[in-house]
Amino acid sequence: MKNLIFLLVIMFVFSSCAEDKINGGADVYGSVSGKVVSNETFEPLENVKVFSSPTSSIVFTDAEGKFTIPNVKVGEYSIQAQKEGFLSKFEAVTINKNLASEVIFELTKSTGTNIPPIEATVVAPLNGAVGQNLSTKIEWNATDPNSDVLTYEVTLRNDKNSTVSVYSDIKEKEFLLTNLLHGIKYFWQVAVTDSKSKPVLSAVFTFSTLEFPITRFLIVKKVNFNNVIYAADQNKTLYQITNSENNSWRPRKNNQSGKIAYIQSNGTQSHIYTMNPDGSNKMKITNSVPIAGFNPDYIGFSWNDTGDKIIYPNFDKLYEINSNGSGLKKIYQTPNGKFISECDWSADGSKIAIKVNDSDGYNAAIYIISPTGSVISTVLSEQTGALGSLDFSVTGNKLLYTKDVSQYESSNYRQLDNRIFEYNFDTAKSIQLSMEKIAGTNDFDARYSPNEAEVVFVNTSNDGTSERTIFKTDVNPSGSNTFKRESLFVNSYMPDWE
Q1: Cis upstream peptide for 125 (omega within 30°)
Q2: Ranges 6-20, 57-71, 403-417: which has the least confidence
Q3: Which fold has domain 28-107?
Q4: Where does the pLDDT of residue 345 fall: very low under 50, low under 70, confident under 90, or very high at 90 and above?
Q5: In sequence order, what DSSP letters do the residues of 208-254 get, joined into one string?
Q6: Which CATH number describes the domain made up of 217-497?
Q7: pTM
Q8: Between 142 and which of 120, 123, 300, 349 could a Cys-Cys bridge form, CB atoms 3.0 to 4.6 Å apart?
Q9: What are the distances in angstroms from CA 367 to CA 271, 331, 352, 434?
Q10: pLDDT digits 0-9 by tens, 268-284
Q11: CA terminus-to-terminus distance, the chain
Q12: Per-domain boundaries in the chain
């Protein structure tokens, strides 16, 4: 009996140990399989030695270049393939429980003992150079002890944002960087490889681009069927600040905020955006309520003087919105359903000029309302023909506008004799400024100069298809005007001068 009890105890112990190993402490395995080919011909390579680190079984590829390493503990491994006459290759692989992981090797023929390339050194621009153009060619020097053919990769960063640009498969020791930004410090680095060794990194080199110039003018040009906004300095040098792939127009700068607001197409709608004077930091302001009216080409908005608010029309309503896109509110709605096409906010913030018209752009009138939406006065009651170009003087006692004195109306909103006028709130009278306009042309998009001694405007043939030119002229404070036109920008329109 004692022997029987002892035997049962021994069987129970062994049974318990076996059960513990299965359920509690057993190692978990998977496998890895793959194929090894030549990187030149992609033909399979036979008898390639394949093993892992941490160490596993060593296997060799078959005639089809295939291999399998069974019973590999789960985990992260580096699989190595070795064959005489070829450079060794490593590939990372993860082994999962009861799964076969796969890896492909492309081996490069060995040409003997390889020495990696020498790291690249800068040639141009010199490290730390300043005042570089927005298209800058970078150059470097690199050599290889084995005289191998070298390939380069350039990585570009800057100190203003997190953008990283990588330019690969460069065959020459130079590369043209384009579309750089003004006033930015750039960091660039070259990686050189001979295809037999790991890429060798150069030191990090730097250069800075030209500061954005002082620009007083904003204009619009047509590029590839899109409206594109340009800034211009006093020498009339142009700097493109919106992308030609987008349709952007009606720029308005606010000096207090240092921002430019403009309209841009967004799908089937038009919305107001803002940007820095150099075109950077673009931001969409309007969202749920777009800017809209009878014709996108003849619609306008206005900043307040401090640049923290914008007013804009949406058909028969006038909205106010903060320049950061918050605080949208309706401040006025026409009582008769007419569209609001243009608006301007006086510098003192006390009054807003609005131009209203029917759905064809006619039966137009100009009203003055308060910021809370109360009608204060009428500048022009319903007119026959086109009206436009609202712009308050800095004191708010004068208002520029344009009017087609021919009173012509058509389905395509053609204007025959558009002229510039200035309304005086003290006298409640208007004087004409387009005294020497060439017959058969239109003056429109009139704006005061910053000192209000001049007016900038667009003139073009009334055929509606000819080239448009931006002019400026002196305005005599007494009301008379010699109107000596000075051409500023050809093939341009929608000017702003701040």
Answers
A1: yes
A2: 6-20
A3: Immunoglobulin-like (2.60.40)
A4: very high
A5: EEPPPPP--EEEEEEETTEEEEEEE-TT--EEE-S-TTS-EEEEEEE
A6: 2.120.10.30
A7: 0.70
A8: 120
A9: 24, 14, 8, 23
A10: 999 999 999 999 899 99
A11: 113
A12: 28-107, 121-209, 217-497
